[in-house]
Specification:
Blueprint: E1 4-11, H1 16-26, E2 33-39, H2 45-56, E3 61-66, H3 70-82, E4 87-89, H4 92-102, H5 118-132, E5 147-151, H6 157-166, E6 171-175, H7 184-188, E7 193-198, H8 201-215, H9 226-242, E8 247-249, H10 255-270
Parallel strand pairs: 1-2, 1-3, 3-4, 5-6, 5-7, 7-8
Length: 272
């Protein structure tokens, strides 16, 4: 039986960066059992002392931290070593290496990435735009979008749109419904990047059955019928091919992976 670890994620900011790094790290180890504890906005030695104390009260503790203030980063490293707690700084060596490469001193300011600059307000605007254009709610201003996603139900259109919006991309997603016409403006549009999302019909059927079980709506018989779904997917592929729209199969992809492929397509279109 594998040992279970108590993982302490310690950040001097929101902890978002550290959490993402840890998710990537743990995905590389199939038999890694752990319990995660997160500590955000840690900016004093007293706060660190409390965390070290908690580590000592349980077995198999380890600390991952993103602390940019040099003195505090040294303190957590020294205290962890003193009490024999494995401790790993995520940004320290990277900041030092960049400092040498760029020949300039790092500011070592917590939350520096969260300043209210133009990029921040661009993301907020993109999120508001995307939410108001979710699921085909609004399609009269498609030229204002950075990207338009098309796909049958349960092809991850909404979560992918929200992810892209958080990256600053105004996204419209439009559901494809069997035997219903798509908005006329789409086929005439040449400026906005339009991308089709598809998925394996059997996988879609499983997802839809779970959704129907939650909704408890007996009227959704065709919605989970495999032959019906196959026809939906085939028709969507035909539509995408006819209009020369790039297509992404989301069957075994995470939202992040799908979004990465979309961003690559957007970049290619920009340079055409």
């Amino acid at each position: 039986m594998n040992e279970k670890y108590n993982v302490y994620l310690v950040s001097d900011s929101t902890g978002e960066t550290l959490d993402r790094i840890f998710l990537s790290l743990k995905s590389q180890f199939e038999n890694f059992e752990y319990e995660k504890k997160e500590f955000a906005f840690i900016r004093t030695e007293q706060q660190i002392d409390k965390i070290i104390k908690q580590c000592n009260e349980v077995q198999n503790s380890l600390i991952l931290y993103t602390i940019v203030e040099t003195k505090l980063a040294k303190y957590i490293a020294n205290q962890s070593q003193k009490f024999d707690v494995p401790c790993f700084g995520i940004l320290g060596n990277l900041i030092l290496s960049f400092s040498k490469l760029l020949n300039q001193k790092a500011i070592h300011k917590p939350s520096a990435q969260h300043v209210l600059d133009d990029d921040y307000y661009k993301r907020i605007e993109a999120i508001q735009f995307t939410m108001s254009h979710d699921d085909g709610k609004k399609i009269d201003d498609i030229n204002s979008a950075d990207v338009i996603l098309l796909g049958v139900s349960r092809t991850s259109k909404t979560p992918t749109s929200i992810y892209l919006a958080n990256r600053g991309y105004k996204t419209i997603n439009i559901p494809l419904v069997l035997d219903q016409q798509i908005p006329e403006g789409l086929t005439k549009n040449k400026s906005v990047c339009i991308i089709g999302l598809v998925a394996d019909p059997e996988r879609l059927a499983d997802i839809r059955r779970n959704r129907v079980a939650i909704m408890k709506d007996p009227k959704l018989k065709d919605y989970t019928n495999l032959d019906f779904i196959r026809k939906e997917v085939d028709d969507s592929k035909t539509l995408f091919k006819k209009n020369n729209w790039p297509t992404i199969d989301v069957t075994r992809r995470s939202v992040e992976e799908t979004a990465a492929s979309i961003l690559k397509i957007i970049e290619i279109k920009k340079h055409k």
